[in-house]
Design a protein that fits this description.
By secondary structure, the chain is mainly α. The chain folds into two domains: about 80 residues, 2-enoyl-CoA Hydratase, Chain A, domain 1; about 80 residues, no CATH class. The protein has seven helices and five strands. The strands form two sheets. A three-stranded parallel β-sheet has the order 1-2-4, covered by helices on one side. It has a two-stranded parallel ribbon with strand order 3-5. β1, α2 and β2 form a beta-alpha-beta unit. The longest helix is centred in the last third of the chain and has 26 residues. The protein is elongated, with a radius of gyration of 21 Å.
Length: about 160
């Protein structure tokens, strides 16, 4: 289902007085974090409208559980796995490929934390670039933990231990 269609459907469920509760079945989450925020917000709006929200997960990973935590109740089949792992990031570096092809990029870096050109100039991540990525991932993990804790009425420490 397209994101826009899902958001319209959730909005109409929120506004329709005949609808008292919703059930969202999540098979696989292929959306990015920003899209998850939109769907999660729509589910929270339905909750705030006084309607019960239920989410059924076939499997639970970071993204699907984050989405589901906005609902009143979360359901998983007995065979489901809970796959909560830390966040990660991958970067491809093309320096060796460019050298192999005889291409010498002409790029300039101005400042330690301006690392966009690194993927063409280096074989691996620089310290400042790693520091930036780690900071972004740490911030995202902190926000994820805080939102899950808020919606599940537990402490962030408990969420971190999951």
């Amino acid at each position: 289902m397209l994101l826009a269609d899902l958001l319209k459907l959730l909005e109409s469920a929120e506004k329709n007085p005949r609808i008292k509760s919703i059930l969202v079945v999540v098979k696989r989450v292929a959306a990015g974090w920003a899209q998850l925020e939109e769907v999660r917000s729509a589910i929270e709006q339905i909750r705030l409208a006084g309607k019960e929200t239920h989410i059924y997960l076939e499997q639970a990973d970071n993204k699907s559980y984050y989405l589901a935590s906005a609902a009143d109740k979360i359901y998983l089949p007995p065979s489901a796995t809970l796959d909560f792992v830390g966040l990660s990031s991958e970067t491809l570096f093309f320096r060796n490929l460019l050298s192999y092809l005889g291409i010498e990029p002409e790029l300039f870096n101005i400042g330690d934390y301006k690392s966009a050109a690194e993927v063409f100039q280096r074989e691996g991540m620089s310290g400042p670039s790693r520091e930036m990525i780690d900071s972004i991932l740490s911030d995202l993990q902190g926000r994820l933990n805080a939102e899950v804790a808020r919606n599940r009425n537990v402490s962030t420490r408990q969420v971190q231990s999951w």
